[in-house]
Structure formats: C-alpha cells, structure tokens
Amino acid sequence: MKTRQHHFVGNSWKDFPSDLDAGKSQLVLVFGSSDTIKKPEIYGHLKSAYPNADIVFSSTAGEILDNAVYDDSAVVTAIQFEKTTISSVKTNIKHHANSFDTGVFLMDKLSGADLSCVFIISDGTFINGSELVAGLNKDNKHQVPITGGLAGDAARFEKTYTGINQVPSQGNVIAIGFYGKNIKVGHGSVGGWDEFGPERTITKSSQNILFEIDGDNALDLYKKYLGDYVKELPGSALLFPLSLRMNGDDKNVVRTILSIDEEQKSMTFAGNLPEGSKVRLMKANFDKIIEASSKAANNAFADIENSKPELAILVSCVGRKLILQERTDEELDAAKEILGQNATITGFYSYGEISPFNESVQCELHNQTMTVTTFTEV
User: Which pLDDT score is estimated for 303?
Assistant: First the structure.
C-alpha cells in the first residue's frame, strides 16, 4: 500500500512527497469543511490528478492530518493498494423508506465471499445513525468489520455534505468495500467519560427522542444535574452525554444530545434510545478523554496482530473537540504515539462514529468517542 496526502488550506494546495502512482490510485478520501469541499474546483483538481480513483468526500467539524486538527480546509489522502480491490457504492436517504433500508441496500451491493471490511461515510443530518447501523448489520453474515463516521458541519448542526466522484451534496451515504485476504483491518473505539449518579430506566422514547426516565420527565431530571450549565443549553449538553445500555448488554454506548424541545419537554439525541434501556449521566474528564485516544489506537493495533499500520483513519466526535478546545491536538498526539511514525494518519471530527466494540461483534453507532480504523496490506 502506498499513500499520498495533500492539504488545501488558505486557498492553496500543499502537496506531500510520495512515490504513489497517481494513475494507479484506487481511492481518494477528502475530509473538509462544507464550504471548502463544495467548491467545484476541488473535485475538478482531484479528478484530474487521480483519474482512475473513487474520490469520496465528507464534510467535517474539523479535519485531521497526522497529529494536528484544522478548520476550513480539506485533507486529501490518496491510496494505492497493491493486493486489494475496492468497490464503492453511493445512495441517498431519499431513495429509501428509512435509514435502516439504506444500510441494508448498501451491504447488499457490496456482498461478496472475499469482502474483508466496509468503511462508511454517511450524511450526518438526515440519517438516523442507529437505524443505519442496524441495517448494515442485518445481512453481515460473515461479520466483516464495519467502521466509519457521520459527516459534520462544524458546531452548526445544520447541513452536512458527502459524495463520491462528484461535488458533494446532502443526504448521501457511501460504503467502501475492501476485498481480498491481504488487507488487514484493525479498529478501536473508546470514550473516556466518567459516569455519575444512579442507573435509571428509559420509560418513554421514540427512536432518538427521549421523553421520560423512571416515569419522570427526562428534560426536567437532566436540568437538575446541570446546575449553572442549564443557562447554556443546548450547547452545554455536549459536556453531559448519556451512557446507554441496551437490552441487557454489558457494553455501554454514549449518546449526545443534539437539541431540546422546551414545549414537548423532550431531548433529541444522535442515536436511538429504546424504551427499557438503562442510562446514566456522564461528565467530561479531560485526561481520560485524551487517554481514550491511546486506548482506541491500541485496540486497533491489536486487531491487526501487531502488524505496523500503514494507514489510520481517525473519526472523533465534535463534542470532544468542543470540550478539549486547545487541548484537541493532545488526543491526536496520543493516538499517533501508538500508531507510529510510519502510519499515514487522516480523519475528521464527526456527528457520530461507527465501529464494533471489539473483534467479531457487530458495529455500533457511538457518540463522544475516538474511533480508529487501521489498514495494512500483507
């Protein structure tokens, strides 16, 4: 595997040296701000440079290049596989009844005996991430790892843009299938938040909208815990996500609040919260959040049997970036220290992360995690 990276920043291109053969590159990943990647000249430039590659775009809440995070730019990573084939499929949520059917459609299009893994780039505003993941899992009989993320839009939560081989637009979901025995994929996803307060039961919800916990109004209960942060809602909700345990699972996923409705006394989350599930409040622990990046990278490293990763895609949550602020680079440094100097590192800050908890389990939608996917050819 060979890679080459480019950075479009300040209206000019910075090209990093590489011996990659541009004509033989099969895949180009473009992570950038909405305003940047919507420029037709960005796609035109890359299509001219990489005429035979699938060029996949995602808008972001921050772009990751090596161990640094940027805003209002585009990070480009071209990949040339030597022994691996890929297939990329795009669909739009408007072509399906719901997000679940979208996931089922994508996996059906990629199905094959030698499918080794799938990487998802999804719209982050129209898609229900939990339902999308359920659809991706439905017919994943061989339990190939599925990872990826939901596109971002800085901290605006208004419009996200994704696309393949065209200027990106809204509502698209792209699935990239990697085929063959020579590609080794590792994955890890860790949050690092502290839980507090008693475990409670969701007693009324509708998909990703929460109404009642333990029979009481959820928004009123949530506000009691926030104290002075109540004045800063909904933005302050990023500091206090929920830990969710579904159907008796022993693993918890994190759910971030996207908005609140004072009239309905409800909260909308970036993922479903089924009735009967157990929840606890969480709060930020800066050191643990940064340490979680090391753990995620370690987990991804272990999954590839300690082979040295050649490419690592980091998908971290916008909430982590807003909380860490000037310390955001520290979580990237922590990951890079584990991944090593020779790994090409790219990625973005997202509205949701997709990854299994560990090997041989179905993928999950995560919020407020650092998710690392590593690729190595053997």
Answer: 62
